[in-house]
Design goal:
This is Claudin. It is built from 5 helices and 5 strands. By secondary structure, it is α+β, with helices and mostly antiparallel strands. Helix 1 runs antiparallel to helix 2.
């Protein structure tokens, strides 16, 4: 019963992390214009994302344009696009696989070992999705911080951390928690099940009394042997 509740909690954490990863992938707020120095008088904000860059001026709606080519992105954003797509695929597939092995579903019946193995595989895929999220988010954040303190760049070229990076970090934490819960709960259950199985084998040992006909035959043979030894 406790494992069933933990599986539901892990499923919710994975779902929240997957939604956050999808939002971070689609948002253009990976890099934001830094208002420092003389840029404070310019009422224009520039956003750079994985799929498009956007501009927002004062009292005007945001205008976005999709990148004309993948080569227009910096190396960190190029890698981030591929890794975030892999994270969504792994997280979504792991979420679907976990539904098959949960105790509250009846997709696999009368085979608890198979259910636990399915949940371990699903948890591993969710943890891999977490890694695919945290690598591009942290890499992009590192590049932004490095360029911000680079004295060779002018103020107009400096960027700040966007909202999508923070959402990506939080989403990776949820994915990591959900995947670890799927793995740890079922690995522990596997060990306990094997111990119970070994103990039950030892405790079910029973001794049966011999059959009466066999006892009479054994006594007759024993008496004949004694009489034969007495005569000779």
């Amino acid at each position: 019963m406790a494992n069933g509740a933990l599986e539901i909690v892990a499923l919710l954490l994975t779902l929240i992390g997957l939604i956050g990863a999808a939002a971070s992938t689609g948002m253009p707020m990976w890099r934001v214009t830094a208002f420092i120095g003389e840029n404070i008088i310019v009422f224009e904000t520039r956003y750079e994302g994985l799929w498009m860059n956007c501009f927002r001026q004062a009292n005007i709606r945001m205008q976005c344009k999709v990148y004309d080519s993948l080569l227009a992105l910096s190396p960190d954003l190029q890698a981030a696009r591929g890794l975030m797509c892999c994270a969504l695929a792994l997280g979504g597939l792991g979420l679907l696989i976990s539904l098959v092995g949960m105790q509250c579903t009846s997709c696999i019946q009368n085979n608890d070992r198979a259910k636990r193995l399915v949940l371990i595989i699903a948890g591993t895929m969710v943890v891999m999705a977490c890694i695919c999220v945290i690598i591009p988010v942290s890499w992009t954040g590192h590049v932004i911080i490095r360029d911000f303190y680079n004295p060779l760049l002018i103020d107009a070229q400096r960027r700040e951390l966007g909202e999508a990076l923070y959402i990506g970090w939080v989403a990776s934490a949820f994915l990591f928690a959900g995947g670890c819960m799927f793995i740890c709960c079922n690995v522990q259950s596997e060990d306990k099940a094997s111990e119970r199985y070994m103990y039950s084998r030892a405790s079910d040992y029973m001794t049966y009394p011999p059959h009466p006909s066999l006892m009479s035959t054994f006594n007759a043979n024993a008496n004949g042997s004694v009489l034969y030894g007495y005569l000779f």
